[in-house]
Amino acid sequence: MTHANLPDTDYDMIIIGGGPAGYTAGIYAARAALKTLLVEGAGTVSQITITDMIENYPGIPEGIGGFELMQLFKKQAQKFGLEILPKDVTGVRKVSDSPVVWEVAAGDRAYKTLSIIAATGAMWRSLGVPGEAQFAGKGVSYCATCDGPFYRNRTVVVVGGGDTAIQEALFLTHFASKVFVIHRRDRLRAAGMLQNRAFAEKKIEFVWNATVEEVTGSEFVTGVKVKDVRTGKISEIAADGAFIFVGRLPYTDMFKGLVAMDKTGFILTDENLRTDAPGIFSAGDCRAKLFRQVVTAAGDGANAVHSAELYLDEVKGQVY
Ligand code: NAP
Q: I want to staple 122 with a disulfide (CB 3.0 to 4.6 A). Which of 89, 131, 139, 285 is the partner?
């Protein structure tokens, strides 16, 4: 069947993002024989590839490294013929209405598409306290997998009380002799099983109701100044490294003004992962949702493609 009145586009679908959501979308779209391009950042470090061990992705009881798992996603997508462009997206714009056609600029050209899956992920959030930026790479880290081995038999602090902070604190006990977990409340946000492991780990000491006010040091980090939020009292904890895990910010700047977002910039979708812009769907950590996991990102990728397929059928039917 031909669609004589369909606008001339390069693709039915462009997936932006090369994490679990993007590659799952890629597997589903390529297998559905949609003309699809996946654009993945040329130099972007994705969260999964720096995750040491994923032990809750179903079907892999022995666990798997994040980088290794991502390679498998990619291999599976390529098996179905997914076209992949390793370039940073520099812009997204609407080029026509009725039907809506989007243009995605990446590398030295722009590609027209009927639909987009925004699967751009998120990045670690910083604390924004004095010394944090100054000592980045000199004791301040956002990646225990990357930097943990540098802290063998040394003391580190971990800031945060979520799954990431506790998981990474546990990982750091493989190297460090002492791990202080500094949390702004008196209860952790992390999952119960992680909490139990952390409470049982002798190398971990919790510093409750405390915020980090400053990262101190000369050439390298020597400690952190913490404030007791109940008394306002400032004290200093001596440490060689400060690992900061206080949540994430989405990579969604390219969609600003195109789709509705929450106040942090996470993309708002309905339950079928449609945004409020026709033809734009969102999947994975960049969308506003409660639970950010590899498995939920993968589920999002599949759902977004299904919704996009229904949309494409409608669009093609309308102008057919
Ligand atoms: P998160 O759940 O948003 O937790 C962020 C933590 O940092 C919270 O404890 C928060 O304190 C604290 N925090 C935020 N801003 C702060 C500030 N300015 N100063 C001090 N503390 C601050 O983020 P996450 O731990 O990165 O997890 C993100 C998502 O990924 C979650 O859905 C999580 O379940 C998931 N995840 C899952 C796994 C796994 O299952 N293996 C591993 C990692 C992450 P409050 O608690 O007081 O808000």
A: 285
Catalytic residue (choose from 12, 147, 163, 240): 147
Q: Is 168 in the pocket of ligand 1 (CB under 6 A)?
A: no
Reading phi first (left if > 0) and then psi (alpha if -120 to 50, else beta), residue 217 is in: left
* Burial class (CB within 10 angstroms; exposed 0-12, middle 13-18, buried 19+) of 191: middle
Q: State the DSSP H helix or E strand holding residue 124, giving kind and residue range, or none if neither.
A: strand 122-124
Mark whether 143 is an active-site residue.
yes
Q: Is the CB of 247 under 6 A from ligand 1?
A: yes
If one counts every other C-beta atom within 10 angstroms of the C-beta of residue 263, the result is 6
Check if 286 is active-site: no
pTM assigned to the model: 0.77
Domains of the chain, start order: 11-123+248-316 (3.50.50.60), 126-244 (3.50.50.60)
User: Rounded to 5 degrees, what are φ and ψ at 227?
Assistant: -110, 130
Say yes or no: CB of residue 292 within 6 Å of ligand 1.
Answer: yes
Question: Whole-angstrom Cα distance, residue 182 to residue 128?
Answer: 16
Main-chain phi, psi angles of 211, to 5 degrees: -115, 145
Beta carbons within 8 Å of 208's beta carbon, 6+ residues apart: 183, 185, 186
Query: Which atom number of ligand 1 is nearest to the Cα of residue 165?
Result: 25
C-alpha dist (Å) from residue 71 to 32, 79, 271? 21, 12, 29
* Helical residues (DSSP H) of 5-65, grouped into ranges: 20-31
Instruction: State whether the beta carbon of 127 lies less than 6 angstroms from ligand 1.
Output: yes
